[in-house]
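Dear colleague,

Following up on yesterday's call, I've attached the two folding results inline so they're easy to grep. Please treat them as preliminary; we haven't cross-checked anything against experimental data yet. The first protein's sequence and structure tokens come first.
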Amino acid sequence: MKYIIFNISEIDKVNFEEVRETSKETVRISIDGTKTFVKWNEDKTPSFINTLTTAEGPYTYEEIQTILGMDLWNDPTLLPLP
């Protein structure tokens, strides 16, 4: 899988037939509500990716896991206590 992060304001540029998410209602959104991401099989990069002006990536699975562990994507106050 490959992953790309972009501003939620560009969500209407996504062709959901080319990614694993099914609609804009099913994407994960950052805690501050500004960013989202999509994923796709590595063999074919979605055609709309080049139209995203705020794109970050693409990232591998390992890289996206590190990014999603950051506070922008997780509210530390909601994490379980050790």
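Below is the second protein, in the same order (sequence, then structure):
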Amino acid sequence: MADAPGKPVLGAKASAKKKIRKGVTRGTAHVKATFNNTMITITDTNGETISWASAGTVGFKGARKSTPFAAGRAAEKAATEARKHGMVEVEVKVKGPGAGREQAILNLQNAGLKVLGIEDVTPLPHNGCRPPKKRRV
């Protein structure tokens, strides 16, 4: 029954090989620092991801994920991976109110990437949503 024509064989998957970009020297490091986690994505000038890491992927769980130390480790991992592709200079865009903002930037520098500029891109509401109606007790 498994050899029936037109039927896919179990276990066979399309091998989509990962595209390896080398020779990318300049890019952007996006640091998203939430209260629960910190995610670092390093992209090229077109916005295509070269490397990424988060406090969770580095091995931290629970409350330790939201610490500056975990954010620094994640930044270190993403930066070393990006340096393998030839990344030298990055502009840093920081988003969110988390604890690991500064530590992530410091560890990007310590990992050997030259930080050209730091920009805060945290979204701010221009008066936002309508508040809930007044409580009647």
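For the second protein, one point worth flagging: Residues 35 and 128 are 20 Å apart (CA to CA).

Best wishes,
A.L.
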